[in-house]
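task queued by scheduler; priority normal; single chain, no ligands, no partner chains; default sampling; output format set to structure tokens
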Amino acid sequence: MADSTAHGRGRADQAQSFVFNEERACMSKFGFGLKFLTALLLLANSIALTHGAAAAGAEQPWQNWSNSLGAKHKLSGRIWSAQRGGFVEPDMMADDLAAGTYVLLGEIHDNADHHRLQAWVIDQLARRGRKPAIVMEMIDVGQDKALKAYMGSDKPDAAGLGAALGWASSGWPAWELYQPIAAALFKAGLALDWANDTREMIRKIGREGFSALKPERIKALKLDQNLPDALEADLRSQIVAAHCNLLPASAAGPMVNVQRYRDALFAERMMLAGQKGGAVLIAGGGHVRADRAVPYYLKAQDGKAVIKTLILAETIADRDKPEDYGPRTPDGTLAADYIWFTPRAERPDPCEGLKKHLNKKRETKAKKP
């Protein structure tokens, strides 16, 4: 897969954080521990808006933030529309998202407000008559049996789902942060499905590249087609920058393969889960960007797909223009349909942790005969 120190690095680092948040599995092949991985992947990468479709008097997430850092920022709670080139109300955005076959909601994993807003979107889609399957990056194929067993049990609920999936040992932020998403899908009677592969397979892709896959799988996922040169170069540079510029460019290759594999797999999983009513993807922002992530492979695998993307972005103290935020294409265009601005979660600077980790590895290596 940050605090004011991390955010101070500016718009470029803000964009890089979307990639960085998604590299947890690939980085584990370099020997990072689970707790360190969890902290590292959290690098990232209210105005009282009214919503008529909500129950009368119900308090909306943007009216009572969980996080206080940046809660009074002039952008917090506002939604920027790339198509309109201006701000829109939540209702207007929800109407547009409901028209999508596939809706992708990009988060920063440890931000509770992001998950509350994702839950709000799911609820609004259901209110508009949609019945999409919910596909989550945080659930992998190795949990499929447990997921199906729990969802098919007598009284499954949001509180018990985390324990059924073994969430506490998964390395993802606490289940309590994700529980609002589960509550929304249970309330609406929506299906839940996995998106990710196992850590073992992700590590194998990191070691062997796409040769770890059978030729027919490579073709089905559209991984037999190279990314356009500009997009691949941008992905490589963002991976290096997202790792605090502490890794050599040569180390980006395995991470590029892992990122592309996961994007392609997530797209396939959305298509399979959404055959009847479409699908919603819950994933880190790096997977949601429209130019070269999951939407790229959705278009390749389903040319008729109507794709809608929403990035949830933490505000930065000294940046109050929408143009300063969001994943950007190589030419600077916003790579998402919408950005919803939120306060930021409080966390240590992951770059400091990475520096210490790499220095420790160098010292250990130097001591060996």
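post-processing summary
- Residues 1-56 have pLDDT under 50 and may be disordered.
- The chain has one domain: 4-367.
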